[in-house]
Amino acid sequence: MSSPPADRCGCTWPRDHDENGVPRQDSCCWRETAPNADRCVWHADTQTVTKSVERLRTSRAPRSVRTRNAPYAELLDGVTLAGLDLGSLRAVTVDGDFTFGGAQAGAVDNAPRIMDLVTPDGVTQSEALEYDGSTRATLPFVLL
Ligand SMILES: [Zn+2]
Description:
two-stranded antiparallel ribbon
């Protein structure tokens, strides 16, 4: 089994990735490791690395690597963003105001903060963004 250089994340996806198996859109992160961590800012847990949108942006893989990963602009499989304040999205509420309206009463916390999205053939935006008080919307994967 090979391991990545010490300055590279090397997080593989899927988690049960088998380097001797048949690849199925498997990936290996080549971003630099964060200081005092064995993973990049994207893959390190939030208790090890302090994350911000700016820090994530500046720790993206080099353009040359992203180009080789085409058609994907950035590999995000397995990243840890729990608890990260994205800060620039307005809330969605029932009545709107300085927020966006249209959320379902009793399900405001699960209302997706999405205005538009591309869906796969045969899936409408309404179907993709469907949610209720106990279920969040699940964004479908679309290969661009
Ligand atoms: Zn990584």
